[in-house]
Design goal:
Shape: globular
Structural class: alpha/beta
CATH architecture of one domain: 3-Layer(aba) Sandwich
Distance between the termini: 37 Å
CATH superfamily of one domain: Alpha/Beta hydrolase fold, catalytic domain
Number of helices: 19
Helix content: 40-55%
Strand order of the largest sheet: 1-2-5-4-6-7-12-13-14-15
Length: 565
């Protein structure tokens, strides 16, 4: 496999595991993290005996390193020390082992401190971030691969690295670039499925896609994307397009494209978004002549979709037939992930205050936060590639989309934080949202739920809890053997793809479900397609034109809102 191909495959893996999303992490406060530093300093001075004990252990290990007796070795998954020089060059090997000794010593010291659970989680997070930043591979002299490249290129790699750094400072808001954006253009090689905007408001555009079959199913489908990302991920590149797959099955596909809000839209909250969706469904039913439609929501868009379903159920409105929820957590809990353990009530309120002051939670701020939550993968990896090695980041469509993030209105951000605090989906009929008491037990539609095995943004066991919150008697849960985005963009043809399925009503626990699950080779999309077709009515002749007299087609897909910066 060529070096370029390896780089793209690595980018694909990182994109799947580290895409920006709204979840509990928006409640992490800088003040809390700085407080963790203060706690460590307090423990260091207040309990010197423990500090001395661990410093002595570090000193003993350093003596072993100097004598070439140390057995410290990097984790096999740690890409930083894979260069063969670290194995055979004594200077580089000692430098690596000294770093690993410090890393181990700090970890052991934190584990030995008398801290509560929240303090320990924060101290571990902050200390690891600091230790990661001083890894020898982050500096030119400590990175043998970068040194060799500088020698082989006659220093040109260093000049190119300086140029890349200057470009990031001046054109990328100081963030290290994760993707080469130059090969991609929306509407030309991304988001190319034919369609048109058939309904437009200040908040959203509703896109109807051109049928690609002579016959279509009578019941249309509405796709509801997250508000924090742009909708064209559903029609990314032709080989990854959800829209193309669904239209090839004869489904009538509609897609919401949310506007990128500014501070003038700070008042847009969850209720406003749900009301917009109800208006959009009115338009879809009018255009297609159907009495019902199916809806699909992903990630934070799934929260909006679930709220929509609860509100319709509270009104006795039966317009929705089938419901699809993908990589979506409706009752996030702090124990779901390591990062969740860092969230505090104070952090949540500070996050709320900041977005209220700005009018929006800026997409670039959220992207920066995500990057520093996983610095080795999302910061230092690219610092080494772009600056020390003097290489351009890979041109990868998923990363292009992920870096094309949007803002979140302050009110919607506040609503999401309230959902985290009050857990309305897990407490049916007790918490008011979107003008009603949220209660998914009243939602009895057939439901299709998808999660990803390696998804740490919306962990699959947290996604599974949705099956126990909804009142439906017909719920199918699919577990894709992939991460957050790859669980969605999972078209047929990938030889490595597989998924798990357990027919029948999902049992109470994930262990029970997994015990009866069967592994299936290939993409889960065909199974989803079967499920959708079974709930999309009879076939009829495909419409010759998009829209209707009352809702004439406007701008061609993907619309204009996807170009908002």
């Amino acid at each position: 496999m060529s070096g370029g191909k390896k780089k793209i495959d690595l980018a694909s893996e990182l994109a799947a595991d580290n895409t920006t999303a709204v979840n509990a992490m928006v409640g992490i406060a800088r003040e809390d993290l700085m407080g963790a530093v203060a706690v460590m300093l307090r423990e260091m001075t207040g309990r010197p005996a423990k500090t001395v004990k661990h410093m002595k252990a570090l000193g003993d290990e350093v003596v072993k390193i100097v004598r070439n007796e140390s057995e410290l070795a990097p984790d096999t998954k740690d890409r930083r020390f894979q260069d063969i020089t670290f194995k055979y060059n004594p200077i580089y090997r000692m430098g690596m082992q000294y770093y690993l000794a410090v890393q181990k010593g700090v970890k052991d010291w934190i584990a030995d401190l008398e801290l509560d659970e929240l303090e320990r989680a924060r101290a571990s997070f902050v200390s690891q971030m600091i230790v990661d930043s001083v890894a020898p591979t982050n500096a030119l002299i400590g990175n043998p691969a970068a040194m060799k490249r500088a020698y082989e290129s006659g220093g040109l790699s260093l000049l190119k690295g300086l140029q890349n750094a200057y470009t990031d400072l001046t054109e990328n808001k100081g963030l290290v670039s994760q993707v080469d954006k130059r090969p991609f253009k929306i509407g030309e090689n991304l988001a190319t499925s034919k369609g048109a905007v058939v309904h437009k408001t200040e908040m959203m555009e509703l896109i109807q896609y051109q049928p690609t079959t002579d016959k279509v199913r009578a019941v249309p489908l509405l796709i509801i994307p997250p508000q924090i990302n742009k909708a064209y991920v559903n029609d990314l590149s032709p080989d990854k397009s959800i829209v193309r797959f669904l239209t090839s099955l004869g489904l009538q596909v509609f897609l919401v494209s949310w506007r990128n809000p500014t501070k003038d839209h700070a008042h847009w909250g969850l209720e406003a978004y749900v009301d917009e969706l109800i208006g959009a469904t009115d338009v879809i039913l009018d255009i297609t002549g159907s009495k019902t439609l199916n809806v699909s929501g992903a990630c934070s868009g799934g929260i909006t979709t679930a709220t929509l379903m609860s509100k319709l159920a509270s009104q006795g409105d039966k317009r929705v037939n089938g419901l699809v929820l993908m990589v979506n957590v409706l009752d996030p809990q702090r124990e779901d992930s390591d990062v969740g353990s860092l969230v505090s009530d104070n952090g949540i309120e500070l996050a709320r205050q900041r977005s209220a002051k700005e009018g929006v939670l800026k997409g670039e701020s959220l992207a920066r936060m995500f990057a520093w939550l996983r610095p080795n993968d999302l910061v230092w990896n690219y610092v080494i590639n772009n600056y020390l090695m003097g290489q351009d980041p890979p041109p990868f469509d998923v990363l292009f989309w992920n870096n094309d993030s949007t803002n979140l209105p302050a009110k919607l951000h506040s609503d999401y934080l309230d959902m985290y605090v009050h857990q309305p989906f897990a407490n049916p009929g007790k918490v008011e949202f979107a003008g009603h008491l949220l209660d998914l037990t009243k939602v009895t539609n057939d439901v299709f739920v998808v999660a990803g095995v390696t998804d740490h943004i919306t962990p699959w066991k947290a996604c599974y809890r949705t099956t126990q919150l909804i009142g439906s008697k017909n719920i199918e849960f699919i577990l894709s053997h992939s991460g957050h985005i790859q669980a969605l963009l999972n078209p047929p043809g990938n030889p490595k793809a597989k998924y798990y399925r357990n027919p029948g009503k999902p049992p109470e626990t994930t262990d029970q479900w997994m015990a009866g699950a069967e592994q299936h080779e290939g993409s889960w999309w065909p199974r989803w397609g079967e499920w959708m077709i079974a709930r999309s009515g009879a076939e009829k002749t495909a419409p010759k034109a998009l829209g209707s007299k009352a809702h004439p087609p406007g701008d061609p897909a993907p619309g204009r809102y996807c170009f908002d910066e």
